[in-house]
Amino acid sequence: MATRCNDRELLNDWHIVADRAALAGDTPFPTRLLGVDLAIDCRDLRKLEVVRTDTGATLKRAERYGFVWTCLDTPWRDIIYIPEANEADRHLVSGGSIAVKVSGLRAVENFLDMGHFPFIHAGWLGEEPHTEVAPYKVEITDKGEVLATECKFYQPVASPTAKHGFVVDYIYKVIRPYTVALYKSNPIQKERLDVITLFVQPVDEENCIAHPYLCYLKEGMEAATVRSFMQLIFGQDKPILENQVPKRLPLDPRAETPIRADAVSVYYRRWLRDRAVTYGAIPAQS
After folding, report:
1. How many helices, marked H, and strands, marked E, lie in the chain?
2. What is the pTM of this model?
């Protein structure tokens, strides 16, 4: 039986539980969130219901960015706002819902890691001998988010529209414990950034579903190409993530030895500890 979550930071927040386009009206859609089994009743496609299968209780639900969201308790705040989703010259597409046998916190941390680009995404997001992660800045913003700026990395194929390799500017922002956004240089409109927001659904402590949401500038690219590129990259990450040991994310600073390139990961783990987030983690020893 899956361990239930006791973290108020997670229980009182909104989480994605389904890609809206994947739902059919003839049968309930089963899923799980934070160890709780759910069913999305979509017989009336104009008004979906999210129901706990253990108690039969109907939960709060919302639809935004093409996904179905729910909260297991009372929301402390709204679903995150993505301003780029309101820009008419962007493709707004899901990257698919990808089940991964690892803690969702591990999935977020992997998303933050530039060091693996030349080895896991060779020929795409990195290549040898360009393996060094240059120093970058990390801070906690006034909104309480982890922000990494001045991130730069050489990429041979940074985007489906890239015609040649170049040094890509990256900005990372951890918005919620299981939500992280990436802003990266667009190969055509150099002054603007493509945006990928990774919403991770914590199924239980050692399983998750990744829901990438892509806000890419349309120029020179079709929506289907954006989706395929994201699935290619995540398909390379999935086996690496599933072979992580341990599957949960250690929060003790002594558990795994960081290097300079891991600065944002160090901040992320400390940020989780400060928020008493333990679900999907191995808590630090007191």
Report:
1. 5, 16
2. 0.91
Helices 104-112 and 263-274 meet at what angle, rounded to 10?
A: 150
What's the pLDDT tens digit per position in 177-190? 999 999 988 888 98
Residue with tokens 């120029």: 219
Residue 230 burial (CB < 10 Å; 0-12/13-18/19+)? buried
Residue type, 225: T
Please provide the CATH number assigned to the domain covering 8-71: 2.20.25.680
Please say whether the beta carbons of 151 and 158 come within 8 A. no
- The CATH number that domain 84-282 falls under is 3.90.380.10
Are the C-beta atoms of residues 163 and 139 closer than 8 Å to each other? no
Q: What is the pLDDT of residue 157?
A: 60
**Is residue 271 a contact partner of residue 119, using CB atoms and an 8 Å limit?**
no
Q: CB of 250 within 8 A of CB of 280?
A: no
Task: Tally Cβ neighbours within 10 Å of residue 59.
Answer: 19
Q: Would you list the domain boundaries of the chain?
A: 8-71, 84-282
196, pLDDT greater than 90: yes
